[in-house]
Amino acid sequence: MTQPGTPSPAGRISVAEASQRSQAVLDEVERAVVGKRLPLTLVLAAILAKGHVLIEDFPGLGKTLAARSLARVLGLDFARVQFTPDLLPADITGSFLYNQKDGSFDFRRGPLFTGLLLADEINRTPPKTQSALLEAMQERQATVEGETFRLPEPFHVLATANPIEYEGTYPLPEAQLDRFLMRVSFGYPTTQEEHDVVTRRLARGQEDVDLDQVTDAGGLSAMQAAVEIVTLDDTVARYCVDLATSTRDHKDVLTGSSPRGSLGLALAARGFAVVRGRDYVIPEDVKAVSRAVLSHRITVKPELWMTQASGPRVVDAVLAEVPTPRALEQP
Amino acid sequence: MSAVALTVLAVGVLLLMVMFAARSGPERIFTGPLHDPSFRGVTPSYTLPTPPSLPGRGHRQGLLHGNPFFTTLGWVVRLLLALCVLWLVQLGVRRLAERLREWRGRPRPPRPGQVDFEVLDDPDPLVEEIRRDADEQFALLLGGEPRNAIVACWDRFEEQAERVNASRKPWETSSEFTLRLLDQVAADAGAVARLEALYREARFSEHEIDEARRHVAVEALRDIHASLGIGAVSR
Known about the structure:
The complex is a heterodimer.
Chain A: H1 15-32, H2 37-48, E1 53-56, H3 63-74, E2 78-82, H4 89-93, E3 94-99, E4 104-109, E5 116-120, H5 127-139, E6 141-144, E7 147-150, E8 156-161, H6 174-177, E9 182-184, H7 191-204, H8 217-227, H9 234-249, E10 253-255, H10 259-275, H11 283-294, E11 299-300, H12 311-319
Parallel strand pairs in A: 1-8, 1-9, 2-5, 5-8
Antiparallel strand pairs in A: 3-4, 6-7, 10-11
Helix pairs in contact in A: 1-2, 1-3, 1-8, 2-10, 9-10, 9-11, 10-11, 11-12
Chain B: H1 2-24, H2 26-31, H3 57-66, H4 68-104, H5 124-132, H6 134-142, H7 146-163, H8 174-184, H9 189-204, H10 211-227
Helix pairs in contact in B: 1-4, 3-4, 6-7, 6-10, 7-8, 7-9, 7-10, 8-9, 9-10
């Protein structure tokens, strides 16, 4: 497998090439993860926007499979960490070990130093360990005993959390949730899709799905560079800001989206536009990513916890209120 | 929530005061029992003679109850307290009603088949309006810079819809609205998609929009009109 950070011989690529490659990635991943094109598109859009993704779903819905498949198809190094209550920060970042040969301390890298890290059940570990990972996500570096180590490029975290079991868990604080560009749910497959899962497995004759590598770490970096040249019209940028700020004024909301939400909308919409084959963002792109980008940045008032009020519902309400950019701008 | 709790607390305190005033008279609330020996609970072994110069309890009662001014004042105080209570109660009820209304008005997941936009009962008026406005729409598309012309041509569909009272919701994008309308009048889907793609590119991209793109848009608009039974326009 290609080492993370290896420069692609192709160098810079156009948006059209990035789009074609994105479609090829999705087609390949969909061979393993059946019928989840839209959530997979969102995850890929977040990766193209250099973001991290929190996948919140019930057990057995393909979270780990999706992460492994994406890592394989994107040609990234893959590491999985099962977050448990006794996990320590050094178990993720790595630690210095005494070398008896030359009497020095050598740094042994932890699973953090990879291309795509699957942080499984991130809410099962105490905040101290969570914050070690989240610091690395934000700054793309890890500091161990005063020494700073850069993480490979590209570096992405796909974290999973179970939304129904709360006993013995440490829910991520809002400030840490904010570090994830998106929170995505795969949801249950339809009956037909579930039937496809069964028949494909029986036809395959083995558990693993052999997927082809579509690109490598350098290729992904080139795709991410292509996203940077996607045009975002000023009226669409204002629409992103209006959506994020409107979450702060909603009657059910204690704390709305931070400015990072506006930025996240703009970045994720650009990634989404590339996957959809455009080098410019349309308001529909913003709408498509807004639920995944904004809902986890919203804290509902405590007195409404027993009601149906929730982040996604607030985002839906905001989407049904905030005016979209007009065809003809008003003078 | 804290405002509601404070209101309830205030109502409770006032109710207690009113009940106490009703039982013992409002003067008891303001003067209190501290100077009244009958509240001490201890029977004195002897009775002090009341000095004739000092007014005693009987004298005070006589002064309060016998005096029409104090009697009227007592009733006025009771009335004011009752009004206060009524005001606070109606405040609390109104607040509760607001909460209930908010709770009932909370957005609910749409039922299958439920849509949150207007559906034209009869698409004929819109087709008629597009027919009536066809010359003007072509004129917009053929004049000025190609980029602005394509955007103006697409926006014209919105104006035509507004004239037959089918306005775009503010949260709907122009593409969503116009595609839906043209679908309802059964316009040529391929031509609509071509014109919509050109509109999006002209409106949101920095691509060069040249005369060739305008030509494609003219062809698309012509096909849309033809699919609606609108004949060739003069231009």
